[in-house]
Amino acid sequence: MNPQVSRLLIANRGEIARRVIRTAHHMGIQTVAVYSDADQGALHVQEADTAVALGGTLSADSYLRIDKLLQAARDTGADAVHPGYGFLSENAEFAQAVIDAGLTWVGPPSEAIRALGSKSAAKALAQVHGVPCLPGYFGADQSDATFTAKAQQLGLPLMVKAVAGGGGRGMRLVTGMDQLLPALQSARSEALAGFGNGDLLMERALLRPRHIEVQVMADSHGHCIHLGERDCSVQRRHQKIIEESPSPAVTPALREQLGQAAIALAQSAGYVGAGTVEFLLDEAQSDKPFYLMEMNTRLQVEHPVTEMLTGLDLVEWQLRIARGEALPLSQADVQLHGHAIEVRLCAEDENFTPQTGTVVAFAEPAGLRFDHALHAGAVVTPHYDSMLGKLISHAPTRLEAIERLSAGLQHTTLLGLPTNRAFLAACLQHPVFRAGHALIPFLAEQADTVRERLQASADAHTVAALAVLYAQHPPAQHMASPFARPVRLGFAGKANVWQAAVQELGQGQVRVHQGDVTHTAQIQHAPTTHQSSAVHKVLRITLDGVHWQVQAAHTGGTPERWHVQVQGPHHAELWLSDQSHSVPASGPNAQTATLLRAPFNGKLIALHVREGDSVKQGDALLVIESMKLEHTLTATRDAVAHSVPVSTGQQVGPGQVLVQWQEAT
Fold first, then answer.
1. Which residue in 18, 114, 169, 298 is the catalytic one?
2. CB–CB of 437/379 below 8 Å?
């Protein structure tokens, strides 16, 4: 008798919960959502047939509570559980608990998760079955002394990795022996917080590889196939932000080698379901050798890339496999068409600093797949991952896919909090990426040149300033003003205040005097195809005969802050604040900053400075955990700590004072 999947509980949140709900409903399967206190208004809660409150705000109190998830299944009559990705998706104890409760587990057997979910165990298994691995230490002895001895044997550079989990958490590159012990300490802490397991492994590091992964699908009848590769080399903090298929570096012959290695590893562990085998590809060698990184025993964030290329629904395959059905295709039947690229839209600025806030305005672009859980009013908290959604393009050629995705990003409206939307668009247009030459160090080497592409022109600043000035009320239509209005606005990232005198000329026209430069502008509020509100306005501005469209959202604060997206001869995203009544913060009389403030929401997990301590530029001061990652703040100059008004374990918010300095003597 085949297992039942008629009412499915999704043990996850956000865009992946919505993704599973969509396919389940298409198959006629009822769905049960679960949610934390922070997610009670989320879209996945609204779209499921039934939703159950787990309580709590932190993952540890909600989405990681096996007892609460099983109770939700019992209370709603669910007969199956889909774990999504992240959280408990690679937790063998959860998989077994679901099965022991008499429910269908939509995932691999718990024995396969144990065999492959640990990177150390997977590498030991891979070596037995001829899958190439880098030299390393994968042992049970986790003492610093053992790691130090093994590091000296292996030689540098080395990569320290958490044996559990993924997403770049618990990874540290070691290029000098003096870095090893701090790397072990930091990686253990991050892995323990993220996965409940602080065990580590260590292997020789390739400094300029590609990250290539292979999608495998296996059924319970002994069939296993691969669906091609994905190139995930564009990363920051060891986390992928751009994925594509096929890889620019993979030939049909290499694809077959990678695919057979992935299948061999999966079958060696009795794998069933969707999984991804990840490799490092060393392009520096003429024969392009590849080495196993790990196997993710779950659906991947980037699975839409493969779906677009193959025309298959991988979630549907997961559900059918869980019901005992055989794979519908053989390896020979798999066809890859065109080129697909995915970008991960994250709540972070161009320096990869995590951000929180409320979405004021949101609108999707036309012509792209967009998996997300966004809506106006959605609150982005520090409690979960920073990813907001994924945009995916599919086209006959790679360059067409790049252009479609880049244009789609530019036409995505997302106002209210900083995101990497513009940064992603600039990455896609970088010549190294366009040429297909981006390796894992791409952003480490080129991030500054990408950021240069984000710099707005003087005209874009003027247009944004006018949009904010006239967002609530357009300029006078009938009577010209005899007076020019002085305006002072601050642009985030700019030391100098934007100053101008603006005079209304009637008929919606204004004249802008900025030093020796004078502009004439026509301003009107534009009709929108999506809902606008009192805090979100769309304007059409013609500056010196050039047309621009601007979206401006009021995000509150004191002084008032505005988030602006500008489209015209080029695109820009800007943050402005009213500085009409502020004292200039720059110039010969400006004081050296005496306060270190929290740059984002998070939990203070380590404090390395105390009152009276002298620090040098570059010294580590404290560590904040936010959105599942640890962020170390360092001293920007030599100074002495006058006071430290925070303590370890405390939750801190943006702008909160962490350290007050006095000048070093």
1. 298
2. no
SS (H, E, C) 215-275: EEEECCCCCEEEEEEEEEEEEECCEEEEEEECCCCCCHHHHHHHHHHHHHHHHHCCCCEEE
- The average pLDDT across 260-273 equals 97
298 is catalytic: yes
Confidence at residue 586, expressed as pLDDT on a 0 to 100 scale: 44
Question: At 531, is the pLDDT very low, low, confident or very high (cuts 50, 70, 90)?
Answer: low
Q: Tokens at residue 23, please?
A: 């396919």
d(CA 79, CA 185): 42
Rg (CA), the chain: 27
Per residue in 551-604, pLDDT tens?
999 998 777 899 999 999 989 999 999 886 554 444 433 444 688 888 778 889
Closest CA to 447 of 624, 236, 631, 252: 236
Torsion of CA 8, 14, 18, 19, to 10 degrees: -100
Q: Yes or no: say if 79 and 4 are a contact pair by the CB < 8 Å rule.
A: yes
Instruction: Let me know: does 390 contact 302? Beta carbons within 8 Å.
Output: yes
This prediction's pTM: 0.87
| Cα 257 to Cα 243, 281, 550, 609, 618, distances in angstroms | 20, 12, 50, 52, 45
Peptide bond into 246 cis (omega under 30): yes
* pLDDT-based confidence at residue 199 (cuts at 50, 70, 90): very high
In angstroms, the CA 565 to CA 182 distance is 41
Judge contact between 403 and 425, C-beta under 8 A: no
Provide the token pair at 3: 């297992």
